Each structure stands twice: as structure tokens, then as C-alpha cells.
Amino acid sequence: MEFSHFSVLLRETVEGLGIRPDGIYVDGTVGGAGHSREIASRLSEKGLLIGLDRDPDAVAVATERLAGYPARVVHCNYSEMRKALDDLGIGQVDGVLLDLGVSSHQLDTAERGFSYHTDDAPLDMRMSQEGLSARDIVNTWEPGEITRILREYGEERFAPQIAAAIVRARAAAPIETTGALAELICSAVPQKFRRDKNPCKKTFMALRIAANDEFGHLRLGLTAAFECLKPGGRMAVITFHSLEDRIVKQQFAEWCRGCTCPPDFPQCVCGRKPRAVLINRKPITASEEELAVNNRSHSAKLRLIERS
């Protein structure tokens, strides 16, 4: 199976994790194992890399690519990290990586239904290849809910018009393919807003986020990952969406917050201490060199935190 995925911010991520040869590390989104293989290559026989992924295609490929390294690959969502580690008899770890991007394999494999560039692909978008699909959403959800996710997740200004077009079309026949949905979106977006960029991008992204409950798993996964870290352990998170980055930024800030007493108190009475420290206050973004070879890295942001 060909599984391509450019490892965004590879050097910055691995250096930021501060890999120890005998450490235990978790790649919560192992994908094509690009980051994982780089981490595992720095480990001794006493170290261990654990790769998690909910996509069975990724699990199969990562298992093959990590053969010969001190690594294990587990089929599960990163929000289930605690259970996965418990099953392996592992308590706390030295570092966790979460790369929240959609893999090139998922985007470029037509039958997965992630891309609006293929007309006759099934409208799927499920990373786990099971459960709720984009087809289910467009054909069964209430108009108000479709409008909400397009506006909230996709930041789509024409969300009501697109939702209305979807509802009208499905009344005649189910919307089955990416091409059929793309035509509906184009028909609902005024022509002058279709000149410079494809009008389907935001709607497809919103449906993908909703079908995979990406933000829900992110909130659960951040907490699970942090609780699995040893004191001094680091977490690296790569985001590609402004709402994802906001969730990560706010959660990191919460862990780093200390005393909450009013500033006019002569001394602290709350006793709250920071649970972590930020490694980088501003997100790390792709270099000009990386952007030149991988345009998909243009929206990537890396944030790092160390547990106290």
C-alpha cells in the first residue's frame, strides 16, 4: 500500500521533544510514520516509540515502516491513549506528539472521499473507516445543524445557502459522491466568490471535522496525553486549523497558569501552581525551504509544552 505523508515541521518537532535514547515516546497520530521513524531512530534498545492511529491503513503501513526499530503500533484514537498505554503495561512517558493534519494518503486516495477534486468518489471522509460519514451528515442532519458546522468549523460565509442547496437536492435523491456535493456548493456560492479559489474547500473541511469529531477528540486527547507525561516530559502538537490551534493554545495556557488570586492580595491564598511551562510562546511555523517543497505545510503551527 502506498501511503505518502510529508512530515511537517519534522526537525523542529523532534528537536523540541528533546529525545532521550532510553525514553518512551508516543506518536498519537502515527500516519505514515515519518515523525515516528525519526524519533525511533534516536532511541536505544532501552527506549520505545508507541504509534497510535485510528486509520487501519496507517496502522498497517506504520507497522511495516517501523519494523526493526524499538517501536509498537496500536490501532486506536489518540484520545484513548491512557487505555493503550495501560494495555502495554506503561505508566508515564517522556514525550507525546500529536500531528493533527490529514495525511496525503487520505487526501489523495479518491475512494476515501476527502477531496473535492474527484467527481465520482464516495462521500465518506471517515479517518477510522467506520461510524458516521460525511454522506450521513449531508443526507440526514437538520438544515440548522448543517449550517452550524459549515459556519463554525469551516468559517463559511455562505453556510445557510449551501445548507439550503443540500436540503433541496437530497429531497429528490441522496447525495452520494464528492462531485455531486461539489456541484451543489458551487451552485450556492455567488460567482464572484468562485474566481480566485475553490469554493468547496471550507465545506469539505467542515464535514470532515464533524464526521470525525476532530475537536471533541482533540480536547479529550490533550488531557489524556498530558496526564500520561512524566514530570519533565514534553508534548508537541501540530495544528492546521485556527480553531484547533485555539483549543491547544488555551489548554496549554490553562496548564501553565499559576496563582489566580486578585492582584491586590498581599500573598497567595489559592495555592495554585503551574502544572507546565511553555517551550515556545509563539507557534513555530514552516520555513521557506519547507514551504517550497510542501505547500500543505503553510498553515501548520507547532506548540510545545513541558510538564512540571
Describe this structure in words.
- The chain has helices spanning 10-17, 34-40, 56-65, 81-87, 104-108, 134-140, 143-152, 159-172, 178-188, 201-211, 214-228, 242-256, 288-293, and strands spanning 24-27, 48-53, 71-75, 93-99, 229-239, 276-278, 301-307.
- With 308 residues, it is α/β, with parallel strands linked by helices.
- The chain has a seven-stranded mixed sheet with strand order 3-2-1-4-5-7-6, sandwiched between helices.
- Helix 2 links the parallel strand 1 and strand 2 (48-53).
- The protein starts with 9 loop residues before the first helix and ends with a strand.
- Helix 7 (143-152) crosses helix 10 and helix 11 (214-228) runs parallel beside helix 12 (242-256).
- 41% of the residues lie in helices and 14% in strands.
- The longest helix is centred in the C-terminal third of the chain and has 15 residues, at 214-228.
- It folds into two domains: 10-104 and 214-307, Rossmann fold (3-Layer(aba) Sandwich), CATH 3.40.50; 133-211, Putative methyltransferase TM0872, insert domain (DNA polymerase, domain 1), CATH 1.10.150.
- It is built from 13 helices and seven strands.
